[in-house]
Design brief:
304 residues, alpha/beta, Rossmann fold, 6-phosphogluconate dehydrogenase C-terminal fold, three-stranded mixed β-sheet, 51% helix, binds NADP nicotinamide-adenine-dinucleotide phosphate
Length: 304
């Protein structure tokens, strides 16, 4: 056991996966949970999510050694303000937000003296959301990035690292700015491109009488899975990781124009060389154990 009491604020995919995984690893003596809507709290109680579901955030965090904010990035500041007066001295408050600079700016001003704020981001997810979508294996062999802020207590960071390792993750530390840039390349911009491609196909559907859906092949199908991700979460990601995503989108647009030109001018060599280079990146991801070589992009249905 690493913590006596852990409180999860927000009870969606990530929080429910943390609970099932913490239970699997016996990492916490007790886990409390809170979500803003009575419907989510009822569902959580019905499926046995958390040891206790509280009707207020204050009740959930009382006496907790670790509090994890599992709400959309845009809601982190308000939630931190709500729970701040109820945190016990010496407690660690962490989060799982997909953007780090904006979360730190929003949360840090509310952290009382004697409470340790250690932001984190597990690089694991699916396109599903809500309290019923979590599962214990979500973080297995996935990265979790810890983003300690200035003056973070080394012993508390080490404890949080051990907790995430107990959840199955490989843990690394990174600064917030670098985190946001890396994620803009590996996650945020690819999601935007998927949303765009599915939007284009949806427009075309109107002129091709559902053929896009009917004859949907692997490439498009894979985009639709990503583009089914939670609209609130992804709106907040782009509202808060503006600089890095705009930087990567700028580069993306330049490359796209270069490929467009190669197609127009019939430059097959350029296309072949480009696709050969990108194929090697896929090989690298498989070799690093972050995906498998199985068909259908190595995914068990519904997981990414
Ligand atoms: P989710 O399944 O949609 O659950 C979100 C939870 O936050 C729900 O319990 C919801 O409460 C609550 N919530 C929503 N808006 C709120 C608000 N304005 N104020 C207070 N609570 C609010 O989300 P998730 O996928 O677990 O994501 C949670 C966090 O993890 C996000 O910050 C996201 O960026 C990050 N993350 C997500 C993934 C992923 O792939 N999904 C991966 C890594 C990190 P109700 O149910 O009562 O509405």
């Amino acid at each position: 056991m690493i913590y006596n009491k852990v409180a999860l604020i927000g009870l969606g995919l990530i929080a429910s996966s943390i609970f099932w995984s913490a239970k699997r690893g016996a990492l916490a003596g007790q886990v409390t949970g809170y979500a803003r809507s009575a419907a989510t709290r009822d569902t959580a109680r019905r499926i046995g999510l958390c040891d206790t579901i509280c009707d207020t955030a204050a009740e959930a965090v009382a006496d907790a050694d670790l509090v994890i904010l599992c709400v959309p990035v845009g809601a982190m500041g308000a939630v931190a303000a709500e729970i701040a007066p109820h945190l016990k001295p010496g407690a660690v408050i962490s989060d799982v937000g997909s953007v780090k600079k904006a979360v730190i700016e929003a949360v840090q001003p509310h952290i009382p003296d004697g409470v340790h704020f250690i932001p984190a981001h597990p690089l694991a997810g699916t396109e599903h959301s809500g309290p019923k979508s979590g599962f214990a294996e979500l973080f297995d062999n996935r990265w979790c990035l810890l983003v300690p802020v200035e003056g973070s207590d080394a012993a508390k960071v080490a404890e949080l690292r051990a907790f995430w390792e107990g959840l199955g993750s490989n843990v690394e530390e990174m600064d917030a700015e670098h985190h946001d840039l890396v994620l803009a390349v590996t996650s945020h911009t690819p999601h935007l491109i998927a949303y765009t491609m599915v939007g284009v196909a949806d427009d075309l559907r109107r002129v091709t009488d559902s053929e896009v859906i009917k004859y949907s092949a692997a490439g498009f199908r894979d985009f639709t899975r990503i583009a089914a991700s939670d609209p609130t979460m992804w709106r907040d990601v782009f509202m808060t990781n503006k600089d890095a995503t705009l930087e990567i989108l700028g580069r993306f647009t330049e490359e796209l124009f270069a490929l467009q030109r190669a197609i127009r001018t019939g430059d097959g060599d350029l296309l072949f060389d480009y696709f050969t280079r990108t194929r090697a990146i896929r090989r690298g991801i498989i070799d690093a154990g972050q995906d498998t070589d199985a068909p259908d992009f190595g995914r068990v249905a519904g997981r990414k």
